[in-house]
Design a protein that fits this description.
Length: 197
Amino acid sequence: MSFESLAVAGRECGACTACCVELAIVTDDMVKMEGVACRHCQADGGCAIYAARPQLCREYFCGWRCIPALDDAWRPDLSGVMILHEPPVPGYDAPLAISLVVLGGPEVVESDRFAMLVAGFIDRGTPTHLNLPGKAGFWSHKQLLNEDLAPAIRARELARVKALIWGFYAHLRSRPPVAKTEAQVVQAWPAEGGAPA
Ligand code: SF4
Ligand code: SF4
């Protein structure tokens, strides 16, 4: 899926290479598994073959690149959160879902800022997952947050929203890693994540 038409004009990736690490790439001339840095990532950030990068890379834009309301500090390498678009979730009247992939530590998840981000998506009716990426070769763990958080968000109870997010984060962290089968190791890009139930 191309997100090119959604990209915010003038917003650039800069030194971020989060998707170049976290997502799988499968093209005729490049295959890369999730959770492993692309060989073209530069040590000081950015892509060493930017002008000649694969079409797949040209067409991919994370949520931060596509959502005008997000400020510059939400760039994934700066914020520790990568926002992925995902297929719609049955039962929700929204064209896409999102996954908030936690790249940083617990301090990212327990911040007011993260809770406000989650609340904003859920308030707009967007199916919103908390997503903890697995290491290379393992499934991420993820949880749909909407139903459980909606009452606290409607009541504008930030402390309760934060406590619920923290509870889900702790739960996901406590889940044992689930290895992918050989066939599942490299998936289509963007990754859809989430260990099988
Ligand atoms: S994660 Fe987003 S900002 Fe970072 S390199 Fe990918 S598209 Fe650009
Ligand atoms: S080729 Fe460049 S843009 Fe594409 S994944 Fe690798 S580093 Fe990122």
